[in-house]
């Protein structure tokens, strides 16, 4: 087997670069070796082939469970558990995914719209005019409260406060580079006396788990069919054999929705607000579009706004929160990009490198929402939510939250960046985020035309199927595929 070329430095040094700054590492590799290359993160582990060619990505993402297997990602087990849709595979994964889909359709999405706008309004009303604040702290507060209400169904009370506290701490600590080192080097996952980072993190997890299991137990003892939060919907769901999720499965999927829906959306919102206020022309066009809606715009209308959609799409393109798809493992010999890969080879689709391709996105380092108005991109050219069997199950919810929160913030407040200097992406746990705090300041309140977005009875919010991307429609030349 002749693998694609790749760096010849020792595997340990490749691992260090992968942990410390994966974007610069893979960009350097792509510059030297092209759109398909091999890295090795451990001396005796299978090689990892990194791919950023759309045709090769199409081959990978449409061959899940055939030539390639999408195994559960064990790196996430420490946080999500062994029954998460991310950490399982095969028939078990398919069952969990089918049970998770109903809350992300139709009527449920309309219910979440009001939660998102109400929470956003409440959070932003707490910030004072003229007093700088970290915008990511604000977006984290928004996404955490949305998750607590929409997913857990908890609005207030002692349990809600405790759970929000523990979950916030867990996710914040899990976002450090140190946690990544613990995950890639399991020998570090033990007590080192006074420096007991891993042990403290596990204790926080146990405290949060206790609260989650208490909530599940009470819901089972006193079921309420009128509840519309995701936990209640998941507890009512049944698989093809008529079986519900176990308590452990419910806990793991709740943690999955929390981790995937809080950290990632908060980061995307912070990036969007940075770019909107760094580039005055972008902000002006977006405000013109929002202001044209009049009083009480319906969420489905906001969701479909062309320029808002383009801004969100470009935000997720230029610095995607997830830099790679979930790994695939070769099951039977496969020809990929001109190379014959043997069983056991790990294949990783690079979202970041694909989004930085100059042949697809001219001037890729420039923030240009217009590129999403001028053409459509296939799901193998633009894939911020991954693809194939492991595509993000909550992408419809994330899109809705991102657009409605941005619309509420921009319609309500005049904001400015305190520091207009460049912000770059860096590793933030197992995903990415800004390399420094983005400080913003409120200069004045904008005239608020309405207290919220009016809801109408017709099912106008898009039913996105199994997470079909709505930021961009698939291009005919690659087909739908995923």
Task: Outline the secondary-structure elements.
Layout: H1 11-20, H2 22-33, E1 36-39, E2 48-51, H3 54-61, E3 68-69, H4 77-80, H5 90-100, H6 106-124, E4 133-134, H7 135-151, H8 158-174, H9 177-184, H10 197-221, H11 230-236, H12 247-278, H13 280-291, H14 299-303, H15 306-318, E5 328-330, E6 334-336, E7 339-341, E8 346-349, H16 351-355, H17 371-374, H18 395-412, E9 413-417, E10 425-428, E11 431-434, E12 439-445
Parallel strand pairs: 2-8
Antiparallel strand pairs: 1-2, 3-5, 4-12, 5-8, 6-7, 9-12, 10-11
Helix pairs in contact: 1-2, 6-7, 6-18, 7-12, 8-10, 10-12, 12-13, 12-15, 12-18
Entry summary:
The chain is an alpha+beta fold and 482 residues long. The chain contains 18 helices and twelve strands.
Overall 3D shape: globular
| Structural class determined from secondary elements | alpha+beta
The strand line-up of the biggest sheet is 1-2-8-5-3
Oligomer: single chain
Q: Could you give a short account of the major beta sheet?
A: 5 strands, mixed
User: How many β strands by DSSP?
Assistant: 12
Q: Helix and strand succession?
A: HHEEHEHHHEHHHHHHHHHEEEEHHHEEEE
Topology-level CATH name: Cytochrome p450
Helix content: 40-55%
- Taking the alpha carbons of the first and last residues, their distance comes to 29 Å
Architecture, according to CATH? Orthogonal Bundle
| Alpha carbon gyration radius | 22 Å
- State the fourth-level CATH superfamily: Cytochrome P450
Q: What is the name of the CATH class? A: Mainly Alpha
Beta fraction of the residues?
5-15%
Any idea how many domains?
Answer: 1
DSSP summary: helix tally: 18
- Average pLDDT, rounded to a whole number, is 85
- Low-pLDDT regions: 450-470, 473-482
């Amino acid at each position: 087997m002749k693998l694609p070329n790749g760096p010849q430095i020792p595997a340990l040094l490749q691992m260090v670069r992968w942990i410390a700054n994966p974007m610069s590492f893979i960009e350097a590799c792509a510059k030297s070796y092209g759109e398909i290359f091999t890295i090795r993160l451990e001396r005796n582990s299978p090689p990892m082939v990194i791919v950023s060619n759309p045709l090769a990505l199409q081959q990978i993402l449409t061959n899940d469970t055939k030539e390639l297997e999408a195994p559960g990602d064990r790196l996430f087990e420490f946080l999500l558990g062994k029954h998460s849709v991310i950490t399982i595979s095969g028939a078990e994964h398919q069952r969990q995914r089918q049970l998770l889909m109903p809350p992300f359709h139709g009527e449920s999405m309309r219910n979440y719209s009001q939660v998102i706008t109400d929470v956003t309004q409440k959070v932003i009303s707490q910030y004072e005019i003229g007093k700088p604040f970290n915008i990511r702290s604000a977006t984290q507060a928004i996404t955490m409260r949305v998750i607590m209400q929409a997913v857990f169904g908890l609005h207030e009370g002692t349990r809600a406060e405790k759970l929000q506290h523990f979950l916030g701490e867990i996710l914040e600590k899990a976002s450090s580079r140190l946690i990544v080192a613990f995950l890639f080097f399991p020998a570090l996952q033990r007590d080192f006396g006074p420096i007991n980072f891993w042990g403290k993190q596990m204790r926080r997890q146990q405290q949060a788990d206790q609260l989650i299991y208490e909530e599940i137990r009470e819901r089972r003892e006193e079921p309420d069919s009128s509840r519309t939060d995701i936990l209640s919907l998941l507890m009512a769901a049944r698989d093809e054999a008529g079986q519900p999720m176990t308590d452990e499965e419910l806990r793991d999927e709740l943690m999955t929705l929390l981790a995937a829906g809080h950290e990632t959306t908060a980061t995307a919102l912070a990036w969007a607000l940075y770019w909107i206020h760094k580039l005055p022309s972008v902000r002006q066009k977006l405000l013109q579009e929002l202001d044209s809606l009049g009083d009480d715009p319906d969420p489905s209308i906001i969701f479909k706004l062309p320029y808002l959609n383009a801004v969100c799409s470009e935000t997720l393109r230029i610095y995607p929160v997830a830099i790679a798809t979930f790994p695939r493992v070769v099951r039977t010999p496969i020809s990929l990009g001109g190379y014959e890969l043997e069983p056991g080879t790990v294949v990783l689709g690079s979202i970041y490198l694909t989004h930085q391709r100059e042949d697809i996105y001219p001037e890729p380092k420039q923030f240009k929402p217009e590129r999403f108005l001028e053409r459509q991109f296939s799901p193998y050219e633009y894939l911020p939510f991954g693809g194939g069997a492991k595509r993000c199950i909550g992408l419809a919810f994330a899109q809705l939250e991102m657009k409605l929160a941005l619309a509420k913030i921009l319609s309500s407040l005049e904001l400015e960046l305190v520091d207009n200097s460049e912000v770059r992406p860096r590793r933030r746990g197992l995903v990415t985020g800004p390399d420094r705090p983005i400080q913003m300041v409120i200069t004045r309140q904008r005239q608020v035309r309405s207290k919220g977005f009016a809801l109408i009875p017709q099912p106008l919010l898009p039913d996105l199927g199994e997470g079909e991307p709505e930021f961009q429609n698939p291009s005919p030349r690659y087909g739908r595929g995923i």
